[in-house]
Amino acid sequence: MTAGQRAPIIRPGNFSFVAAADRLRSVYDGYNEQVLFHQIDVDFDFIGESITQYWDLQVYFHSAGKFIVNRGITGDTTPIMLRRFPADVIQLRPKYVHILGGTNNTWRLDAVDSRERRTPEQINYEIVGNITTMVQLSKSYGILPIVGSNLPTGKDIPCFPFEPLIRCPNQSTNIRNELLAASNHALKQMAANEKAVYVDYHAYLVDSDGKTLRPELSDDSLHPNVLGYNIMAEVLRKSLFANGVVI
User: For residues 247 and 44, what is the distance between their CA atoms, to the nearest angstrom?
Assistant: First the structure.
């Protein structure tokens, strides 16, 4: 391909409603085109929400010499992750995809508008179903899926501007954490059935009550700080190594 030609790429475009993913769509389209134009062999692709976007992967995994892309988007939910999966994962053809999402789905527990509200059962079904589809899509293109467990949350989650329909302050910590634990259990079973790698971050970040996030690992009861990411990186490294994968 010459310097004057551009590679054809998948561009999902913006969604027909207010979606957090729209804020980075043009950015990631540009990144994806650059990867494809230069025919870069991608080793790992991380797709998810803010916990993924805020993870500086180069800091933790540069020593293995792998090419890693980060396609996390703050405020993203699993239905939108699935809709952008062909653009942000499949067309880049990574060897491995790390999938981490579902926490943002749970904000619907506290929706002010009853039409937007969802039960724990509905949210669990959505998380597990969407991530299962991503896993199966990955496998169909020869990409090995890595499924990360959702993290527990703390008791003092602030109000986030990307969810204007949600009651503040956060009112559903216990329900949310029980829901996330249940979805993690289902994701672990699914990963075993699909022969995907499962990474249990939750077990290493949860407090002694078995439900909430250890307070020293986050500054806002939701996103890991450097201490939290240190643990996550080590858990991921060891989990992958146990499956013959080096990152």
Answer: 8
Q: Say if residues 118 and 108 touch (Cβ distance below 8 Å).
A: yes
Residue ranges making up the domain that contains 192: 20-240
CATH number at residue 103: 3.40.50.1110
- Under a CB-based contact definition with an 8 Å cutoff, are residues 213 and 152 in contact? yes
Note whether residue 11 is domain-resident: no
β-bridge mates for residue 72, sequence order: 48
Tokens linked to 185: 């259990």
The answer to whether position 2 is within a domain reads: no
Amino acid, res. 12: P
pLDDT digits (tens, 9 = 90+) for 48-74: 999 999 999 999 999 888 999 999 999
Residue 108 vs residues 13, 36, 103, 120, 165: alpha-carbon distances, Å:
25, 37, 10, 9, 9
| Integer Rg of the chain from CA | 18
Q: Can you tell me the distance from the alpha carbon of 213 to that of 205, in angstroms, rounded to the nearest whole number?
A: 6
pTM as predicted? 0.91
Give domain status of residue 3, yes or no: no
- Detail the DSSP E strand segments found in 32-105: 44-48, 68-72, 96-100
Total number of domains in the chain:
1
Please write the tens of the pLDDT for every residue from 227-247: 999 999 999 999 999 999 999
Note whether 69 and 42 are within 8 A (CB).
yes
